[in-house]
Write a structure and sequence with these properties.
It is built from two helices and nine strands; from the N terminus they run αββββββββαβ. By secondary structure, the protein is mostly beta strands. The protein has one domain. The radius of gyration is 20 Å and the shape is elongated.
Length: 182
């Protein structure tokens, strides 16, 4: 749920549309890391990122063909976040969560895709267009107050009013592929 509130914060801070239709914000990042060490029996992999910092990961049981990964292999990680929000009629928004996973076939180079989507309805509690602040209530009844800095998002802020319900869908996907060392 914490990620969802962060998503709502990002949405309100970065969208530049009016609530007459869905609002969408997508960001994709690609990172290439190098396998520094791998312990196949324990499924522990040490990756060195582009800034030279190392991180330890445990490859879950869904990662097939881990024995093919060697020290020096490049791991390409693609991470995508997408936010979709729409002002909805009171009481018509949906909430829920779902997940999708895919993995390499036996014998292929290791790779995996994991995606999740969560929907939640937040209710606008207060809008301060002078101070560029919005406060909204999440599905568990807790309020969150944020400052909106993006000029385009401030335009969106001006279209909101107390009591508006905004359905926020937060989608997150990560794909990992292993490439031979070069």
């Amino acid at each position: 749920m914490r990620a969802l509130f962060a998503a709502a914060v990002a949405l309100l801070a970065g969208c530049a549309a009016t609530p007459s239709g869905p609002l969408e914000l997508t960001e994709t990042q690609t990172i290439t890391a190098v396998v520094e060490a791998i312990d196949v029996p324990s499924r522990v992999v040490v990756l060195r990122g582009p800034e030279g910092r190392s991180a330890v990961f445990e490859a879950g049981p869904q990662v097939r063909n881990l024995a093919q990964v060697q020290k020096g292999d490049k791991v390409v990680i693609r991470f995508q976040e997408a936010l979709l929000a729409e002002v909805v009629k009171r009481g018509t928004g949906t909430t829920g969560a779902g997940a999708l996973a895919a993995r390499a076939e036996p014998g292929q180079r290791p790779g995996a895709l994991v995606a999740t989507e969560t929907s939640v309805v937040v209710r606008i509690y207060e809008v301060d267009t002078v101070g560029n602040v919005v406060e909204f209530t999440g599905p568990k009844g807790f309020n969150r107050r944020i400052k909106v800095n993006d000029p385009k998002a401030r335009e969106f802020l001006r279209t909101l009013k107390k009591g508006d319900e905004v359905e926020v869908r937060y989608r997150e996907a990560m794909a990992v592929s292993v490439e031979p060392a070069k």
